[in-house]
Amino acid sequence: MSTSVLIIDDDQSLCELLSEYLEGEQFTVECKYDGEQGLQSALTNEYAVILLDVMMPKKDGFEVLKALRAQKMTPVIMLTAKGDDFDRIFGLELGADDYIPKPFNHRELLARIKAITRRVAHLTQNNSHLQLEIHGLILDMASRTVCLNNHPISLTGTEYEVLYQLMKAAGEVVSKQTLCQSVLGRPLVAYDRSVDMHVSNVRKKLAQHSSHTFIKTLRGSGYIFLTA
């Protein structure tokens, strides 16, 4: 499993601090200081995680993420301004796996990175023969692919894990707290809409190939994957 991290941020001092810290935690770190160079590296190399700032020269973080998601599903953690809900929600809509507001605690960032790498390891181990199929929707753990009515569905790693958690508990309510902990590796906190946005993204992608309602929201309780 890759332990390489790409940091795309024009704050060179921050990049140096993060590099030193993450390298001390056995990660290999590469830094790019503008969106164009960052995107080029993201598209041509393989990384465990990309840390992507929003405000940058040449291409902002949203432009980089949109272009990246057209070709690759490398996990992305957006670095957003503290309290800027628009940036967080927009980043999640474009396919970011998670976000962390600046200024942040390095240990919290490390926890987010490790949560993503653990999730990837979980999806690739001990699931080689598992396939879930409901209403023409097939989730194959061996190939980590999703198809709906013979159409491939392109999901980010986080969206894939959300769908997996809901499908394996089909017919049962899965709380937002459970999804947040199992998918993002952290407890749900007030006003955190990450899980909602990931579920919304999955719904939109499934709706492109079927009129069937797969995921129902139970207000105040969570989500249920419908079996009928």
Structural description of this entry:
Residues 4-117 form the Response regulatory domain. Pfam families: Response_reg, Trans_reg_C. It comes from Pseudoalteromonas obscura. With 228 residues, the protein is of the alpha/beta class. It folds into 2 domains: 4-123, Rossmann fold; 128-225, Orthogonal Bundle (Arc Repressor Mutant, subunit A), CATH 1.10.10. 42% of the residues lie in helices and 22% in strands. It contains 8 helices and 12 strands. The chain has helices spanning 12-24, 35-44, 61-69, 85-93, 106-124, 157-168, 176-184, 194-207, and strands spanning 4-8, 28-32, 49-53, 76-81, 98-102, 131-134, 137-140, 145-148, 151-152, 173-174, 215-218, 222-225. It has a 5-stranded parallel beta sheet with strand order 2-1-3-4-5, sandwiched between helices. A 4-stranded antiparallel beta sheet has the order 6-7-8-9, covered by helices on one side. The radius of gyration is 17 Å and the shape is globular. The chain starts with a strand and ends with a strand.
